[in-house]
């Protein structure tokens, strides 16, 4: 069966729409790939499939093969050139990746990344999906049983908001088709700091508790705004509500993610992130903005390395991988 090739399945959930689940899913996938993991992304948000747009592969189409669908490739396993630093030079530092020291002077080894979404199947990007519950349920089941995933370390499932037909079908099918219960690693729950979002996302945490899905962590998205003209970050939508909610439900809090216009430009236009002189995130100086044009060359994952959010998600996936693989070894 297709899911037998997958070591760990992670759901990305939220009880509230518009909190940035697809953005979080995309960056978790890129960060995992940068750590050498092979990754798949399954988009089951049937009425608003945005994963193709985030990865810049909207024009792609899935291919039929004996037994099912072949997912769309974002990039293959390979070694990226050295990342640029704030002074314009390539990095010569070392970092810990997959438990061993990786020399950045030799480049970064990345895992393969592929995606599956209804967006690859619809005849036109603007077509509305007007389906009743049974058809949605059937589509989710088909995605889980008919996609011929390659060998994957992680499959991330981007879900619609709420706790409706898609979620019930997803869990029922996963529990029937996964080779063992530990294959379904758990869920990352996304919220924004505002109280109105927190109140809806609490329902998702209750959903996880009632269905037996382990919460791997809560991510507080849009907690701040990175000014594109200076190195300041201000809390437009407040901050801290997600951490309080995680503490109330006794689940891990992975951290907060600010809004970064450079990431928006990367996704929307493919522009490599650049920052004002002196911008530092997590102790790392970011690549400075240069005069004379915008750089659109390179793979998405290569350009993402220079985004201010990359070190944030590197920390997130480090904790997730340690938690999941630690339980496997227990």
Automatic annotation (TrEMBL):
Cellular-component GO terms for this entry: cytosol
Upper taxonomic lineage: Eukaryota, Fungi, Dikarya, Ascomycota, Pezizomycotina
Binding site residues for [4Fe-4S] cluster: 227, 230
Record flagged with keyword rRNA-binding: no
Subcellular location: Cytoplasm
Chain's role: Component of the cytosolic iron-sulfur (Fe/S) protein assembly (CIA) machinery. Required for maturation of extramitochondrial Fe-S proteins. The NBP35-CFD1 heterotetramer forms a Fe-S scaffold complex, mediating the de novo assembly of an Fe-S cluster and its transfer to target apoproteins.
UniProt-recorded Gene Ontology molecular function terms: 4 iron, 4 sulfur cluster binding; ATP binding; ATP-dependent FeS chaperone activity; hydrolase activity; metal ion binding
The entry's keywords: 4Fe-4S, ATP-binding, Cytoplasm, Hydrolase, Iron, Iron-sulfur, Metal-binding, Nucleotide-binding
UniProt region (Disordered), positions on chain: 81-105
Pfam families: ParA
Swiss-Prot/TrEMBL GO biological process terms: iron-sulfur cluster assembly
Family to which the UniProt record says this protein belongs: Belongs to the Mrp/NBP35 ATP-binding proteins family. NUBP2/CFD1 subfamily.
Source organism of the structure: Karstenula rhodostoma CBS 690.94
Keyword Nucleotidyltransferase: no
Start-end of Polar residues biased regions: 88-105
Residues noted as binding ATP in the record, renumbered to the chain: 15-22
HAMAP family tied to this protein: Mrp_NBP35, NUBP2
Protein known as: P-loop containing nucleoside triphosphate hydrolase protein
